[in-house]
């Protein structure tokens, strides 16, 4: 059975203003201890499941900012990983990297470690906007990072771009997207700003200091991207992900396609197929638990049949391909229609869903109103 | 029921007693008090002091009561309890405390409870003074010729001013308060004095065991084993198990299977004699057969006349109740039938709305009654409901001479067929500190009230009486009074009459389609303003959807207001951090939970609260 590995590195130089992910700034003094703890968890998990599994098909080191760690720390992690788990020779091995945190030499070393895909958190190529959202790098640094990565031999690069940011105009976004097209990258993720509680933006909003583009402008940005990316060869394969054919992120697709994954590191999530687990978020608690040879995992919940069906459906619907009817029937022993006939019908009537011979998938409009459709698939 | 308690009560009241208590040792009384003036605490103290229940037993019993009553701090169903008290003269007295519902909705029920008594404790908070509802109930008690014992409660509080309150009782009610008892239900002070005063001052019941049976029903409830049970006060004659009885108003015959008293849990006794208070159960399947105010007599030797004061059920407000999920319609009907078993004042009939589908039109004694029923349906029967805005009952005189009573705005005939309309008016009594007189008048005037009188209760408290449409009261009159008087205003009202008024139907159109369940009947002078406010309010309530939704308010064909709910541009959660699917699912679950409160009206999803929005304008 196909499976993947996710590794979480919860450190950042500065917290971005929109970010509510489990990552922390100003904790550099814990990086070494964290690396040790993480390696411990890796080898413990490897002992537990290593021999019983086929090689991992994907590895994804995310964060936070993995490139906050020193090269020796990153090397230690990758080595521990290779020692603990069989990793497929053709595995997709991704690492997130922030421009301004990696130089040419380091990129070369990463490539040599076997990492074959980089995902750069670029967000925009407008310096003023980057400052406004709390990014620590400039547009020039992003361009440099991409170029260095290509020189280092990376042939599978992805950029994150954001839209709907405070002060952002459609023109600015177009410029950033055009810049991205000129770089010869293989994959682009687009994320609309969402205001999350506890972020700098949420506080600015409460103080009346956050002016966002109008809903119409944000929609125009979305429309522009969903049209122009495919025109430039980046085909949409998931609500917010676009890739040149053959460069879809296999790891991220796994999340939507019911593929099990093992999460390692603080706040990392795992899915066994029957159970979802989450590691403890607090860095120090994580380090202490592993020092005491205890598991950092907390069971999130048992996946009941109802939950399993819901998740199977709404996760698959995020992909362009949609729900694979046969896969649903194989997994649950009953046809998709026996559970979701009415929901499918209602959503078809609204023009949000399309049913084909083997699949049910979102329409173009449905991609835009995904939540309305997903909710219908909650039992 | 707790076995120990049962034994002790049985010993006190039933043990070996073959005959009825002599009436001279019986005292029947109730407690009149405003909400929060300490009625329940006082009742608890009386129960405790007389040893009827220990503190622990009492808590256990109190817990059995409806959650809603405890949450809201009000009594919805009357509680009755028999206390045994050794008087100053060394004799044992049977004291029946008949608790009364403490809300303006239950006027009639209060009057029947008072009719079952010879006396009442008038409990007034020493820090507050006489309130409107207290006043209304005292007057009612005086009409029934009850002996009233003033009790000034909460004298332990630092802000207590018993002398001012004593004077107020004398000035306002005209009672001699020189013998008022100073008490604190909290500390127990004055409890013995109260019990002694009940024995000494409240007259023993009149009547005779020899006369044909006349027993007054003052409350009823439904027991799943015994059926409908009547709370009664025997006026003449006696009731024993096995007797054949008849309800004089409903004509229902039944055989007595159980007769008993309240301790406060029901305890079977041999018989209930003249002057006694208790319950009677028989082959009564339906609470409708047990009407509050009805007279119970024997089948064999019936009384010549029923006791005075019986009145059928007369709902004051109506609203539509619709299941959010149409599949729940049968469940709603079942639930209403079950609630009706315990509450004969609840009336309902099936109705259909173009917008909401199948539902029930329900009549209630008042807004609180409506609220309580709605909450019980949702909590106890797990129904998700849409409630339409409450309506009063209008008298519609058609041009062809026919008179219709309309309790649902959507049933109003076209304006061309209406010659005139009348609406119910109430006499509203408001008591406030005199600083707020201006505020009360302004609000009442705006609510189309007609000023009747104003009297000073003391140097700084004023009683103001308005003649005002009931429909305005059920909107937000009391809320407005409360906020304009910082909560000091107390309100009581009773139905006065029907008067002609210039009334029109205000319709709401969503997406160009009229929504019958949003129609209201309003006064013509306010219609346009109400329409504008209602449309604006609906705009706030109705969430953005995939398309723009025009909201229009209309009188006949004339559009008086228009608002737009803008289209939602997009709705999709993009980012998914490192495989955290659970968080995503929780968001969707929350979203779905919100949707459960919505009803699809045509293509528009309308939240439940939209149908009550009319109550929240102004």
Keywords:
heterodimer; A: 379 residues; alpha/beta; TIM Barrel; Arc Repressor Mutant, subunit A; 9-stranded mixed sheet; 17 strands; 22% strand; globular; B: 618 residues; alpha+beta; 6-stranded mixed sheet; 6-stranded antiparallel β-barrel; 14 helices
Overview of this protein structure:
The complex is a heterodimer of chains A (379) and B (618). Chain A has 379 residues and is an alpha/beta fold. In chain A, 42% of the residues lie in helices and 22% in strands. A 9-stranded mixed β-sheet of chain A has the order 9-10-8-7-6-5-4-1-11, sandwiched between helices. The longest helix of chain A has 19 residues, at 31-49. Chain A is globular. The mean pLDDT of chain A is 94. Chain B has 14 helices and 32 strands. In chain B, the strands form 7 sheets. In chain B, strands 2-3-1-4-5-6 form a 6-stranded mixed β-sheet, sandwiched between helices. In chain B, helix 11 (437-446) packs antiparallel against helix 12 (470-484). The chains are: A alpha/beta (379), B alpha+beta (618). Chain A binds chain B through residues 6, 8, 21-22, 60, 62, 190-192, 194, 215-216, 218-219, 222, 239-240, 255, 261, 263, 267-271, 276, 278, 300-301, 307, 310-311, 314-315, 350, 367-372, 374-375, 378, and chain B through 546, 566, 568-582, 584-585, 588-589, 591-592, 595.
Number of helices of chain B: 14
User: What number is the mean pLDDT of chain B?
Assistant: 86
Regarding quaternary structure, how should these chains be classified?
A: heterodimer
Number of strands of chain A: 17
Into which percent range does the helicity of residues of chain B fall? 25-40%
Q: What does the largest sheet of chain A look like? A: 9 strands, mixed
* Count of helical regions of chain A: 15
Stretches of chain A where pLDDT is under 50 for at least 5 consecutive residues are none
What percentage of amino acids of chain B are in beta strands?
25-35%
Name of the CATH class of the largest domain in chain A? Alpha Beta
Strand content of chain A: 15-25%
Work out the count of structural domains of chain A: 2
Structural class of chain A: alpha/beta
CATH topology of the largest domain in chain A: TIM Barrel
Overall average residue pLDDT of chain A: 94
Helix content of chain A: 40-55%
Strand count, sense and barrel status of the largest sheet of chain B are:
6 strands, mixed
């Amino acid at each position: 059975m196909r499976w993947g590995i996710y590794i979480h590195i919860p450190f950042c130089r500065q917290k971005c203003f929109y970010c509510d992910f489990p990552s922390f700034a100003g904790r550099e003094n814990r990086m070494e201890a964290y690396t040790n703890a993480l390696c411990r968890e890796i080898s413990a998990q490897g002992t537990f499941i290593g021999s019983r599994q086929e090689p991992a098909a994907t590895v994804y080191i995310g964060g936070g900012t993995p490139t906050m760690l020193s090269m020796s720390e990153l090397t230690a992690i990758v080595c521990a990983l290779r020692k603990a788990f069989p990793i497929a020779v053709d595995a997709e091995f991704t690492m997130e990297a922030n421009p301004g945190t990696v130089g040419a030499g380091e990129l070369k070393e990463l490539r040599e470690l076997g990492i074959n895909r980089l995902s750069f958190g670029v967000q925009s190529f407008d310096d003023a906007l980057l400052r406004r959202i709390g990014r620590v790098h400039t547009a020039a640094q992003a361009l440099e990072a991409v170029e260095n990565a290509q020189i280092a031999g990376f042939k599978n690069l992805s950029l994150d771009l954001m839209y709907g940011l405070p002060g952002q105009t459609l023109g600015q976004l177009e410029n950033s997207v055009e810049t991205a097209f000129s770089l010869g990258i293989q994959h682009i993720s687009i994320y609309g700003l969402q205001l999350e509680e506890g972020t700098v933006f949420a506080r600015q909003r409460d103080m009346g200091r956050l002016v966002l583009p109008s809903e119409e402008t944000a929609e125009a940005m979305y429309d522009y991207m969903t049209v122009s990316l495919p025109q430039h060869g980046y085909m949409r394969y998931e609500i917010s992900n676009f890739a040149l054919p053959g460069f879809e992120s296999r790891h991220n697709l796994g999340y939507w396609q019911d593929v099990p994954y093992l999460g390692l590191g603080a706040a990392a999530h795992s899915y066994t197929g029957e159970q979802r687990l989450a590691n403890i978020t607090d860095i120090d608690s994580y380090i202490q638990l592993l020092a005491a040879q205890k598991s950092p995992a907390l069971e999130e919940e048992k996946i009941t049949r109802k939950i399993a069906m819901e998740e199977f459906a709404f996760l698959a619907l995020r992909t362009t391909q949609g729900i694979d009817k046969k896969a649903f029937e194989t997994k649950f022993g009953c046809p998709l229609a026996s559970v979701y006939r009415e929901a499918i019908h209602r959503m078809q009537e609204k023009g949000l869903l399309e049913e084909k011979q083997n699949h049910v998938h979102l329409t173009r409009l449905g991609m835009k109103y995904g939540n309305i459709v997903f909710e219908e698939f909650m039992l | 029921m707790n076995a120990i308690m049962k034994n002790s009560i049985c010993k006190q009241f039933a043990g070996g007693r073959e005959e009825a208590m002599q009436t001279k040792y019986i005292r029947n009384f109730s407690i009149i008090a405003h909400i929060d003036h300490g009625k329940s605490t006082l009742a608890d103290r009386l129960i405790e002091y007389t040893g009827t229940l220990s503190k622990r037993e009492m808590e256990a019993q109190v817990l059995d009561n409806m959650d809603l009553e405890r949450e809201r701090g009000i009594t919805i169903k009357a509680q009755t309890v028999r206390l045994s008290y050794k008087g100053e003269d060394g004799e044992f007295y049977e004291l029946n405390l008949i608790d009364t519902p403490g809300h303006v909705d239950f006027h009639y029920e209060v009057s029947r409870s008072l009719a079952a008594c010879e006396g009442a404790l008038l409990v007034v908070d020493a820090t507050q003074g006489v309130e409107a509802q207290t006043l209304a109930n005292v007057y009612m008690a005086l009409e029934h010729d009850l002996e009233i014992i003033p009790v000034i409660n909460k004298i332990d509080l630092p802000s207590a001013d018993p002398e001012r309150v004593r004077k107020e009782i004398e000035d306002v009610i005209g009672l001699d308060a020189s013998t008022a008892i100073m008490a604190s239900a909290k500390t127990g002070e004055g409890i013995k004095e109260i019990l002694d005063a009940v024995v000494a001052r409240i007259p023993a019941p009149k009547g005779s065991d020899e006369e044909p049976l006349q027993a007054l029903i003052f409350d009823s409830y439904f027991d799943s084993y015994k059926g409908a049970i009547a709370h009664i006060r025997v006026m003449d004659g006696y009731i024993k198990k096995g007797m054949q009885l008849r309800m004089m108003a409903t004509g229902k015959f039944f055989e007595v299977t159980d007769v008993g008293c309240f301790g406060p849990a029901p305890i079977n006794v041999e018989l209930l004699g003249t002057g006694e208070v208790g319950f009677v159960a028989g082959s009564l399947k339906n609470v409708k057969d047990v009407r509050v105010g009805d007279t119970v007599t024997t089948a064999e030797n019936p009384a010549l006349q029923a006791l005075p004061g019986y009145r059928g059920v007369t709902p004051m407000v109506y609203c539509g109740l619709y299941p959010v999920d149409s599949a729940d319609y049968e469940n709603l009907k079942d639930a209403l039938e079950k609630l009706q078993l315990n509450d004969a004042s609840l009336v309902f009939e099936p109705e259909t709305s173009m917008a909401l589908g199948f539902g029930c039109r329900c009549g209630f004694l008042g807004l609180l009654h409506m609220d309580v029923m709605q909450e019980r349906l949702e909590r106890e029967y797990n129904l998700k409901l849409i409630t339409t805005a409450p309506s009063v009952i209008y008298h519609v005189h058609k041009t062809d001479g026919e008179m219709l009573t309309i309790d649902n705005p959507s049933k109003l005939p076209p304006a061309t067929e209406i010659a005139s309309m009348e609406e119910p008016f109430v006499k509203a009594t408001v008591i406030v500190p005199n600083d707020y007189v201006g505020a009360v008048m302004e609000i009442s005037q705006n609510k189309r009230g007609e000023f009747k009188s104003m009297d000073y209760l003391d140097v700084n408290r004023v009683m103001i009486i308005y003649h005002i449409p009931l429909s305005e009261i059920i909107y937000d009159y009391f809320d407005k009074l409360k906020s304009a008087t910082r909560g000091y205003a107390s309100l009581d009202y009773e139905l006065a009459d029907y008067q002609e008024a210039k009334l029109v139907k205000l319709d709401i159109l969503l997406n160009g389609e009229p929504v019958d369940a949003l129609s209201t009947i309003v006064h013509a002078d306010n219609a346009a303003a109400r329409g504008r406010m209602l449309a604006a309010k609906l705009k706030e309530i109705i969430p953005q959807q995939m398309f723009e939704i025009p909201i229009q308010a209309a009188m006949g064909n004339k559009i008086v207001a228009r608002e737009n709910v803008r289209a939602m541009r997009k709705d999709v959660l993009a980012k998914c951090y490192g495989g955290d699917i659970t968080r995503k699912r929780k968001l969707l679950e929350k979203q779905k939970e919100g949707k459960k409160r919505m009803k699809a009206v045509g293509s528009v999803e309308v939240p439940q609260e939209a149908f009550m929005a009319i109550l929240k304008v102004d």
